[in-house]
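Work through this:
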Amino acid sequence: MNILRKILLAPPLVNCGLGIGLIVGAYIFEVFGYYDPCPLCILQRWSFGLIALCGALLIIPGLYLAIRKALLLLAGLFSMGGGVIAGRQIYLQNLPSDQVPTCAPPMDFLMDTLPIFEVIQTILLGDGNCAEYEWRFIFNFAEWALIFFIFLLCYNLYFLFKKSTKI
């Protein structure tokens, strides 16, 4: 129990471990379960990857407290952004079938033909692919991602505002 407590009170391990673990889990479902990710799923993976990067940078010994706090803030912002993306996907999944947006062209085509900001806007609006879900264990992928994003946001904000000088 004491080891678990030490791990849970170590933001570098939690951020890096959860971020990498969730990306690996999503990749396993993609490869072995044949679940193709939609553009919003890919953005959520990027958010988890950036959170893991913040956790990996927090592992560096001898960082100034201000840098540690900035990394916790960044991890919290990436959690918030990922939560917004997951929330958008959940919204699309709960739309009536006649209101679901039409499917967009493939990501490669969008990247080749549109400027980057239009690609981002198109992805964030979502399409018919983002409204589908094939797998469910109590919640679907987007709902699980939202739960983890909310946890990571609260977790990082707790350590950001914690008065202790050791993080």
